[in-house]
Amino acid sequence: MEKLYSISPLDGRYHSKVDDLRDYFSESALINHRIMVECEYFIFLTSYLNSKKKAVKKLTGKEIKEIREIYLLKDKNAFEVKKIEFSGDKNIKPTNHDVKAVEYYLKKTLSKKVKNNLELIHFGLTSEDVNNISYSIMISSFLRDIYIKEINRLLKSLNFFVFKYSKTPFPARTHGQIASPTTFGKEIKNFCERINNQKKEIQKCEIKIKLNGAVGNYNAFVAAYPDINWIDFTKKFTNHLNAFIKLSLKPNLHTTQIENHDSWVAIFDRVKLINNILIGFSQDIWRYISDDLLILKPVEGEVGSSTMPHKVNPINFENAEGNLQFANAILEFFSSKFPISRMQRDLTDSTVERNIGVAFAHSLIGLRSLMEGINKITLNESRALKMIKEHPEVYAEAIQTILRKHQVKEAYERLKKLTRGNRVSEKDMENFIENSDLTQKIKKEIKTVLSKPYIGIADKLCKSKSEE
Questions:
Q1: CA distance from start to end of the chain
Q2: The pLDDT of residue 4
Q3: C-beta separation of 29 from 40 below 8 A
Q4: 460 phi and psi, to 5 degrees?
Q5: CA distance 155 to 274
Q6: CATH number for the domain harbouring residue 180
Q7: 173 and 281 co-located in one domain
Q8: Residue 4 vs residue 108, higher pLDDT
Q9: Which of 16, 175, 306, 310 is catalytic?
Q10: How confident is the model over 283-302, as a mean pLDDT?
Q11: Are residues 329 and 397 in the same domain?
């Protein structure tokens, strides 16, 4: 019942829909990622300095194993770090600093596991070195483990409609008015291609990290070890980290105290664009349901209206639209906020970073709600065909184009006079052709077109692949 008192719906109403994001964007997740970054840095630093003949003992295999076992103690880690931050612990006074609390926790914990080099924990680092790497891992891991997989599931669901209805005529609207027909499969294919293209762009994005100290110049590092190639160190540490976490982070060597987050913004903008595509999709499906072109399957036990028992509402598509719009409002703010910092550092990005998971969570809720809705819809083929048949004027485009081919003067104007602003019947179209001064050959050609669904190569387009 405590969920009734949650301020955010992510921890209340939508808790079950995004529970899997807790390992990526919760406070506990942030603390544990910081711990992992600090520990892997400590492991690599001692090894690197030892290889450069510095007076630093290399960690033993047993010590490294015991250090990494800490990563499994997620709840204990989070609780103990928070305790140090706010209350202190025995001889450790409250830090009121989240990253410093991690450092003290690790020194206390590792003192029982590691014999040497404990002062090299957090050596030369500023908090941002730890934070930017932690958040970059969280973002990258979420994209790989959850987001891309959800996009692939969505594409699989949509492609089912693409191939099933690739030849099924479907009324189209431009400016809200009946236009040349399409197929339902082709309209879904349009969205599939757009989503897939942006998914590929996200997968191409290289998230960058920085590890270069207080103002980005390795000042403290060089003061301690002036003969070490610290650029080489950063590159090799990034490789070490990538090998351990199975990601492809890239070093950013040119920064102030903070990593500029430009690579994050590239991700946010791509996710925002996918969300916009899905908003358009949700609105189209909503309209098709409203026009009775799509039928919603009723769910057993579900209530559509508190007063109208017959209602089966497109709630999943409406929920998706709202959540995607809200996510985009946050992502838009991220894109304008993160690239800007006063001089070498200000702290305004720190509180904003804690909401990265909020934007991704609402994106995911929208995405998952959309997939629920897709599983409830079926195409009303008879209604689609009836609507097309009720509007034979859509063939005016085909007729005037054929007449143009045969150099018939004022072809467009002839059809405009017949159809624009008028409700015409099939009989009207037939009479127009028969009573015209066209040759029999041209009349036959037009009748052949009128006898078939006017859908161009929609079927072929459904089965074609975009050029890479």
A1: 51
A2: 78
A3: no
A4: -65, -40
A5: 12
A6: 1.20.200.10
A7: yes
A8: 108
A9: 175
A10: 88
A11: no
**The predicted structure's pLDDT at residue 315:** 93
Task: Indicate the pLDDT class of residue 466, thresholds 50, 70 and 90.
Answer: confident
List pLDDT tens digits, range 19-77.
999 999 999 999 999 999 999 999 999 999 999 999 999 999 999 999 999 999 999 99
Q: What length does the chain have?
A: 468
C-alpha span between 284 and 374 (Å, rounded) = 12
Q: What φ, ψ does residue 177 adopt, rounded to 5°?
A: -105, 155
Catalytic: 15?
no
Average pLDDT over the chain reads 94
Residue finishing a domain among 93, 123, 153: 123
Residues 411 and 336 in one domain: no
Query: Could you confirm whether 305 is annotated as catalytic?
Result: yes
The answer to whether 442 and 402 are in contact (CB under 8 A) is yes
In the set 6, 8, 87, 305, the catalytic residue is 305
What is the mean predicted confidence (pLDDT) over 374-395? 95
Spatial separation of the C-alpha atoms in residues 119 and 399, rounded to whole Å:
83
Of the chain, the percentage scoring pLDDT greater than 90 comes to 90
Task: Judge whether residue 2 has pLDDT over 60.
Answer: no
457 with 308, same domain: the answer is no
The tens digit of pLDDT for each residue in 201-225 reads: 999 999 999 999 999 999 999 999 9
**Residue 147, exposed/middle/buried by CB under 10 A (0-12, 13-18, 19+)?**
buried
Beta strand 294-296 pairing with 169-174 = unpaired
Residue indicated by tokens 């358009």: 280
Examine the pLDDT at 236 and tell me if it is beyond 60.
yes
Closest CA to 38 of 241, 235, 257, 249: 241
The domain of 421 spans: 391-463
Report the phi/psi class of residue 410: left, alpha or beta, with left for phi > 0 and alpha for psi in -120 to 50: left
**pLDDT above 90: residue 125:** yes
Q: Is the pLDDT score of 308 beyond 90?
A: no
